[in-house]
Amino acid sequence: MSKIIASISTSVDGYVTGPDDGPQYGLGRGGERLHYWVMGGPWTYEGGHEFAMSRPDKQFYDEMVATIGAGVVGRGMYDAAGAWGGKNPFPGPLYVVTHRVQDQPPAEAGFRFVADLDSALSQAVEAANGGDVSVGGGADVIRQALGAGKVDELIISTAPVILGAGKRLFEGFDQDIDLEVVKVYSSPYATHARYTVKK
What we know:
Structural class: alpha/beta
Largest sheet: 8 strands, mixed
CATH topology: Dihydrofolate Reductase, subunit A
Number of helices: 5
Helix content: 10-25%
CATH class: Alpha Beta
CATH superfamily: Dihydrofolate Reductase, subunit A
Order of helices and strands: EEHHEHEEHEHEEEE
């Protein structure tokens, strides 16, 4: 049976982007530091970048994606990432929750635009064919999935940075949820904590 696994990177003070996130600045001003762990160190939007994870980060990432059969993200993340250059880089199809489903890219890009989270999760579970479903960002999509009791596992990668502004992961979230630590990985660029969501 598929598990729903929500994962996101945050700053120590709980921000998932810096200020002014979006197509122009990606993760916002200063927000690229949240993903130093993905790139193996400092990088910039202007200078290009490659995936060059350090050993602990790669172990975490490989274990996380090993069971993934499909994913769900919000339109904000899709746009901020520049649609990943027009091609889904993740395992299985990626369902994008958006009010603008008419913007659907060609099927071969690997993205499916869906109008609501419930439909996106249902379709992703079916497409995963027994594999797990990743819920990536943004924060609003993760809050909705958690609030609806859909998330089985929550993964938070905390970068050693205090952003002071941007979008917070749990902004306005008022539910009381117990978590159980499953595993923790640590590198110079992030501490990755995997939690089971107690139901």
